Amino acid sequence: MIGRFFGRGERSGSGDPQAADAQVEHQAGAAADTTVESETSGHVVDFYEKPGCHLCEDALSVVSAEVERTGATLRRHNILEDRELQRQYGELIPVVVIDGVQHSTWFVQDARLRAALAE
After folding, report:
1. DSSP secondary-structure letter at 29?
2. Which residues are CB-contacts of 96 (< 8 A; sequence separation ≥ 6)?
């Protein structure tokens, strides 16, 4: 649970101010592996992952709970199925993108995600 307390740029010792402020636009053409839709929220959460990634499994439990709670749409992407996604996110997974703007990498802070989905 320690890892869930940091989002992009919040990771202790990151030392990269550009990374802290970076907002990477989501690539619209990426195919989703799984989509879960709801009537409650207009937010779309894209979750980039790969099989066997323990950080992805931990982050997915947080993301799934918040998506279910808020009624957002969750789209899961396996980066191994797309060479461009591998290039873009390979060293950063899991990656959470909300409404086309990168929200977090490596770890997902549940309170921060909840606040973003409440907007």
Report:
1. T
2. 45, 46, 47, 48, 59, 63, 102, 103, 104, 105, 108, 113
Spatial CB neighbours of 32, under 8 Å, sequence gap ≥ 6: 46, 75, 76, 77
What is this structure's pTM? Answer: 0.67
For the chain, give every domain's residue range: 2-11+27-118
Q: Would you tell me which CATH number, out of the four given (3.40.30.10, 3.20.20.80, 1.20.1250.20, 3.30.450.30), belongs to the domain 2-11+27-118?
A: 3.40.30.10
pLDDT digits (tens, 9 = 90+) for 69-86: 999 999 999 999 999 999
Query: SS3 for 12?
Result: coil
Dihedral sign for Cα atoms in the order 51, 55, 56, 60: positive
